Amino acid sequence: MADQPDVSPAPASNLEFKAALLLIVFAALLGAAVVYLMYARGAFDDTQRLVLLADDSEGVLVGMDMTFSGFPIGRVRRIELAPDGAARILIDVPQRDAQWLRTSSVFTLTRGLVGGTNLRAYTGIPTDPPLPDGAQRRVLIGDATAEIPRLVGEMRELVRNLAALTAADSALAASLGNVQAVTERLKGPRGVLGALLGNDADARKLAVMLDRSNALLARVDALAANADAQVFGAAGLVPEARAAVLRLAALLDEARATLKEVDATLRQAQAVARNAEAATVDLGALRAEVEASLRKVGGMIDEINRRWPFAAERELRLP
After folding, report:
1. Spatial contact of 109 and 139, defined as CB atoms under 8 Å apart
2. Exposed, middle or buried: residue 194 (CB in 10 Å: 0-12, 13-18, 19+)?
3. Between the CA of residue 232 and those of 218, 219, 226, 227, 312, what are the distances in Å?
4. Are 86 and 55 in contact (CB under 8 A)?
5. How far is CA 65 from CA 42, 93, 121, 259, 285, in A?
6. At what angle do helices 200-232 and 237-307 cross, to 10 degrees?
7. How far is 205 from 199, CA to CA, in rounded Å?
8. CA angle (116, 118, 123) in 5-degree steps
9. How many whole angstroms separate alpha carbon 218 and alpha carbon 271?
10. Cα separation of 102 and 68, whole Å?
11. Least confident of 119-123, 143-147, 279-283
């Protein structure tokens, strides 16, 4: 056979360079992803430190979030033991989220029966001064599992009390027995009276007393009817009193008429008296005129006597 030419593939040019370039690009992408993740988790943000003091750090993990109104505003960076035996929980809070923490803020650590542990912050007065960097606050722990022993003890006590309450010699059993006895008496011939009074003899006496009371009330009703007839009947006191009142009214009318006549007579007498008084005044004036006339006549007689020639001469006697 004739010699055939060599057909083996030629080595690829720059293969090592391409492999190195691919590794460099992969490492760059991996580094960029790591940097982006660190940036997304706030590794490059400016933060301030918050230290929470707790009796124990059970359930708290590094990297756990601290929430405010359901939003994460801080992350646990480290957990350490204080010299007094308390747990120190160091939390980094970004500066942009530190505005929600005030000096009056309250921090809680809750552990539920189902689910993990939660760190929460509460701010009641947003106008208080901001929480300073490195502030230490006591955390309030709410552990639902810690209440289980107390609840079990209370349930055991409740079951014990319930067993004592439902025992055969308990007060409840005695009360139920008394209720049953009262029910039996209610079913008896005297009914409610027998149950109230306790025996049939007293109930019988009460029934007799009620019958006598009814008879007495019937007599009282009859007496009331007779009194009504005597007082308000046709020949009773009320019609006679009404007639007497009518007669008295007639007498009063007659007396009123008589008084009117007397009033007229008195008016006439007053008129006569006034006329007599007027006549008396006229007589006085007439008397005055008569006296004046008499004086004039007397004066005239004196003048005539003085001028009359036969008149006696007047003597003048000296002392």
Report:
1. yes
2. buried
3. 20, 19, 10, 8, 108
4. yes
5. 12, 10, 11, 117, 139
6. 40
7. 11
8. 165
9. 74
10. 12
11. 143-147
What HEC string does the chain produce? CCCCCCCCCCCCCCHHHHHHHHHHHHHHHHHHHHHHHHHHCCCCCCEEEEEEEECCCCCCCCCCEEEECCEEEEEEEEEEECCCCCEEEEEEEECCCHHHCECCCEEEEEECCCCCEEEEEECCCCCCCECCCCEEEECEEEECCCHHHHHHHHHHHHHHHHHHHCCCCCHHHHHHHHHHHHHHHHCCCCCHHHHHHCCHHHHHHHHHHHHHHHHHHHHHHHHHHHHHHHHHCCCCHHHHHHHHHHHHHHHHHHHHHHHHHHHHHHHHHHHHHHHHHHHHHHHHHHHHHHHHHHHHHHHHHHHHHHHCCCCCCCCCCCC
Residue 2, amino acid: A
Say how far apart CA 110 and CA 146 lie, in whole Å. Answer: 11
For residue 288, give the amino acid letter.
Answer: A
* Structural tokens at position 89: 């929980």
Alpha carbons 263 and 186: distance in angstroms, whole number: 86
Residues 89-107 as b or e (16 or more Cβ within 10 Å = b): bebbbeeebbebbbeebeb
Angle, alpha carbons 154-156-157 (nearest 5°): 65
pLDDT per residue as tens digits for the range 247-304: 777 777 877 777 777 778 777 877 877 776 666 666 677 777 777 777 777 777 776 6
Measured between alpha carbons, how far is 219 from 199 in angstroms, rounded to an integer? 31
Beta strand 140-143 with 106-111 is parallel
**pLDDT (0 to 100) of residue 197:** 58
